[in-house]
Amino acid sequence: MPYLDDPLIIFTDLDGSLLDHHDYSWQPAQPWLDKLSAANIPLVLTTSKTPAEVAALQSALHLTHQPFIAENGAMIHLPPGWRTGDEVPFHINGAGYSEIRQTLVELRQRYDFEFRGFGDVTPNQVAVWTGLSEPEAELAMQREASEPLVWFGNDLDFAYLKKCLAREGLALTRGGRFWHVMAAGAGKGQAVQWLSERYQQKRGQPVISIGIGDGPNDLSMLEAVNYAVVIKGHHDHEMPLHRDDISHVFRTSEFGPQGWSQGLSHFIPVF
């Protein structure tokens, strides 16, 4: 069982996890956020959101000194204190946004696939899809290395879309609301492993990681960490984890930030 004075790192999903699925509030998790801050435990936001969205949230959560993982692991942001030499702030895994968009448009024209991505619609439509305000939707559309899709077609066409994307070095991952297209080698799990190694190098000792998430796109992260919190989700997708250490997996009975707090309380004793 990990303790607050152990070399911990927390990797957390946002929507439906730290943030409420409906109103995007994190207030029920504030007592635990305060405990982590007081213990100097890094909290790494690990999300499908864009860097522009995460930067705003990081500021509100007083986490700007920490790295973050954006666009489902397709991007990793390193704050100034983490960079060496001429290292750039963003580490991009695989294809960039313009390349992904071009591939999607060509495939849709060729095979008449029925989908719409953020690059096809207005901020107003993204706001309708997500429940965000229009200014927030505009931040969600500032994408760098992934494209969220709404699929309107049949299952057979969807299976063929997956095959076509694979031939182009791209893959689909399921989020809470959308399918996300990004480089085949990218993902939250790979990004978590990469950052965990960087933390270990900085600290000069092994680290203990806890991952918290609610959706299928969190599964690779939840398998890459030492302890996994699976938050009860507002969806009907299965959340299977292929781990032998069942005692290191906790499935909450609460949703969102309440479940987030429930998961940390399960694994970390507070005296």
TrEMBL record:
Alphabetized GO MF terms: mannosyl-3-phosphoglycerate phosphatase activity
Domain Sucrose phosphatase-like: 174-267
A Pfam family: S6PP
The protein's Enzyme Commission number: 3.1.3.70
Swiss-Prot/TrEMBL keywords: Hydrolase, Magnesium, Metal-binding
NCBIfam families: HAD-SF-IIB (TIGR01484), HAD-SF-IIB-MPGP (TIGR01486), PRK03669.1 (NF002976)
Name the record gives this protein: Mannosyl-3-phosphoglycerate phosphatase-related protein
